[in-house]
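Researcher: Please generate the 3D structure of the following complex. Treat every line as part of one assembly.
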Amino acid sequence: MTTKWMVKNGTFAVLQEGQPVIRGYMVVEDDRITYLGEEEPQVDAETRVMDGTHLLFLPGLVNTHGHAAMSLLRGFGDDLALQVWLQEKMWPMEAKFTADDVYWGTSLSVLEMLKGGTTTFVDMYDHMDQVAKVVQDSGMRGVLTRGVIGLCPPEVQKQKLDEAVAFAKDWHGQAEGRITTMISPHAPYTCPPDFIEKFVQAAHDLNLPIHTHMSETAAEVQQNVNDYGLRPVAHLEKLGVFSRPALVAHAVHLTDEEIEILAKHQVAVSHNPGSNLKLASGVARVPELLKAGVTVSLGTDGPASNNNLDMFEEMRLAALIHKGVSGDPTAVPAAEALRMGTEYGAKSAFLDNVGRLAVGMKADMIALNTDQAHFLPRTDYISHSIYSASAKDVEHVWVDGKQVVKHGSCLTLDEERIRREAQRSFERLSTL
Amino acid sequence: MTTKWMVKNGTFAVLQEGQPVIRGYMVVEDDRITYLGEEEPQVDAETRVMDGTHLLFLPGLVNTHGHAAMSLLRGFGDDLALQVWLQEKMWPMEAKFTADDVYWGTSLSVLEMLKGGTTTFVDMYDHMDQVAKVVQDSGMRGVLTRGVIGLCPPEVQKQKLDEAVAFAKDWHGQAEGRITTMISPHAPYTCPPDFIEKFVQAAHDLNLPIHTHMSETAAEVQQNVNDYGLRPVAHLEKLGVFSRPALVAHAVHLTDEEIEILAKHQVAVSHNPGSNLKLASGVARVPELLKAGVTVSLGTDGPASNNNLDMFEEMRLAALIHKGVSGDPTAVPAAEALRMGTEYGAKSAFLDNVGRLAVGMKADMIALNTDQAHFLPRTDYISHSIYSASAKDVEHVWVDGKQVVKHGSCLTLDEERIRREAQRSFERLSTL
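Model: Done. Output below.
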């Protein structure tokens, strides 16, 4: 039986040319939007009607790069030089993570993301079956991939690759289709070239996209040149990575020529402004990437290098820093930042029918409470969404047409238990 | 009769060397903190006790630069070149502002600020008696000043100066001492030198500090050189502005020599990172200013160029952008960003006994709800305050020992009426 319901008197961010916002009606049937317009549609008397007055509906936010389980290390070492942070803080702790830790750390992040309006997340980590279980339980949409570091003997490399392939094969399309998978060599500086080529082959065999870190720091770009005589973009191109649909995270340090190569191969970029600033990696050339036609979306990166999962903050940072750094106040306008957090996010994660409010699209959507001081006056709700709003303004969240957050409370997860178990995991890890 | 109450089991951000946070007890008597420590103090049986479990107490945030009434223009023209924004959007609308508009616009901002944990704001605008009334009604602390643009005939200049002086004299110390005043020539590029000198004389006569805009854009610095043969810092020094306690807003474009001059005269700087990025003014040299010993605090600037009044966002931007732009991940650590938003803010606004949680200080303070995913694990509450928190995490707010926000609701203002009247003001202004 079809589940059908309607919103009346809502405000909907449709981001259409000349009409960024529609005031009116939306009908959802099962997982899809079947009507969206100013005119009241004909519906049966039994159709449930929700009053959308004081609610601003946006497409669900898409977080295109992260390591959710790292929430367990939030605030555990900040304001440190990158190598000190990694070698003395992150890596020793992460080496101790059990499957259970990944389950609770990911649950903590998924809870924060859902309540903050993120309906899809891309996650690259280890113990990915645990992450997939959290996606199943939570009702969220997840694009999941086992990130493999290849600095190990060939037999360990093989074991990790097999694990990554098995995960990608087993879980693709699971959770009523809410889980899709990718193939991920971690980064050019952590995977030898021949190992990366094996991932490319696996991605071809499984017909899956590739996700990897690329050119996050100037130092790693220089190392790539020293080791392989090429900058990372040309190096990955040579290894065949861009022969697959590909999403690269960070892409902070790029030449004009590299931007052209990314555009040519339609490589999507996950821009992580909060993480890049906090770790002092630099400021990505986002206006130039967008101008070249590259799909640029937004990611929080792991919660230990951000330190929250508020995608409104990433959208705002994207809209703000490129103005300040370029000196051009028209760089990355509000509507473009919103598209980066929604439509371009879905495209970067290779998801069809997600990321926009329109008939035929999946009902992955969120409603903000606009009955608040910082949403007044009612001048421009796209501007308010980017320059004024935060995760805490999210009132309701739906994924695949099912409500997962109602009046700020998560309907699918046991919030109190997750908070308790995540704290317990951290305490155990820090005393091991 | 003394009003005395106590918090038990609270967590208090004291930012002391080696002990950033204390878990324990705080006693407040009337407007002051009279006890703060780990040991339970002896109190009478009648003393009201508040449970502070899951609450993180911070000093109230101090917003050291803004134009509160400009909330009426939030979202009215974004992503535009500065001169287009000013000349086609802001100025024509502001010219129509009545006293009533300033009252409701300021009320909207004060509501947002109080609920978001800001207990003191510096405000430079017109119709300042209206702003003062809002401060009286709301229970907030305000450092108020009539900002005067001097691009007008001498008789109009004189009238404006007289008005600014009368306001500063009449309102200093009002609202049980919660209002203090300053003297404000708007900026070196909007006030002729001889007019600025009259403000300096007035500030001497009234024994008040001076507040002005300075070096916000590269263009205005160049214009100053063209017009007066000096960059703005030397120009203002020459005119005697720094012979008074002084607070300059923005200070984005500074040479090493200018930083030395500001340090020598103990001029305080209000850093406005959100506004500076959004208007593409540039990135202030905050690490260098702090290193030179300059007091750097934080301001939101007007809500039309920000576009919210979330001081947590300004603290986070200050902690993030200077890392990303300088390439140094240790620049502006979390505790320093928190001091910029609190202790240095109070110092910049020339307020004694405000800005820290310590015995003898005014009980201007806020409590955040830490029972949320993004405050876990309980690793480092100073880090969480800066890198994870937002205005919406504020649960309670006290100014001068009196509670003004309780469980997220403002006790002193009629929220619904303010939202309605602010929207009405905007609608009237936009159809005039």
